[in-house]
Amino acid sequence: MSKTTKPTRRAVAASSEAAFGEVVLLIQGARQRVAKVVNAEVIELYWRIGQYLHQRIEADGWAKGTVEQLAAYIAQREPGRRGFSAQNLWRMRQFFQAYPPGSKLSTLLREIPWSSHLHILSRTKREEEREFYLRMTAQQGWQVREVARQIDSGLFERAVLHPPKVSTALREIQPQAAQHFKDAYLLDFLALPDPHSEAELHRSLLMNLGRFLTELGRDFCYIGSEYPVQVGAQDFALDLLFFHRGLNCLVAIELKVTAFEPEHLGKLNFYLEALDRDVKKPHENPAIGLLLCASKDSEVVEYALSRTLSPALVAQYQTQLPDKQMLAAKLHEFYALSAPDEVDSVTRKKKDGRA
């Protein structure tokens, strides 16, 4: 008679790990959903308190002293409950004033924690700037430290002043692609020497892959470094390969520590062709190429991208925080120059009887 082979202790442990792991995932999923519900209720409460304070201040003349008395009263009636200091109560009123009843952002507000709201409220000036950071925070799942970093880096100013440069082919194949890329990527966390080589840049990006993924965007998934590409009898190595879940395509990134040159696109186009022929799965969209270089002349980039047949774009990387004041000044100038066009547009509509 054949003996029944008993499973080894290691096999039992592996089986238990797989089975028990599913239960842990259920617990974690429930915890995340509960956290979202709790956060939504907290934000709703703070908005309503802000509304109440605003009404009493406007109607009854409540001032600083009254709000301080309210904070003390709450502390007495709700001992141990944090978040209702006089300073935070004033912030709740500011929160209500920034997003009054009927605001188009009311649903979005509940997706973001209070600490991130405080950063956005205190460090942005324009309504469209607040909306930009609210949407980015919700879409990208930024923690409060990343929110602060992106505001410090002038992401809004850079997005308005310098939209990403994409090829005509990319615009046709993936009309929404520009929303997922930047004109410049901030890599201040790499602490690279100046000057540095491509090997140093490449190695440092891999050592800080988590932060690089955050800078790229939430939907980017890392596949490999020096990804092997074989064409004919020759072997090639693509610097970095990612997959973008939203665009459903491979994203090839080539690194250059020099200024952009038109010939750089030739090699990138070659890699995209190889990826589409030999790596891309049938249900995926054509691969996108990102040339990440140390600097670029926008006019040279525009000329180079206008004729390329590949879905590609050119961006630069920055190893230091940009001058926020300079960006703010340029943005102010941008809006000032745009204003006359907007006024003329309104005037024309009125004359035509459309406004």
TrEMBL record:
Domain YhcG N-terminal: 23-158
Matching InterPro entries: PD-DEXK-like_domain, tRNA_endonuc-like_dom_sf, YhcG_C, YhcG_N
Name of the protein in question: DUF1016 family protein
Residues of the YhcG PDDEXK nuclease domain: 179-330
Origin: domain of life: Bacteria
GO terms of molecular function: nucleic acid binding
Protein source organism: Variovorax paradoxus
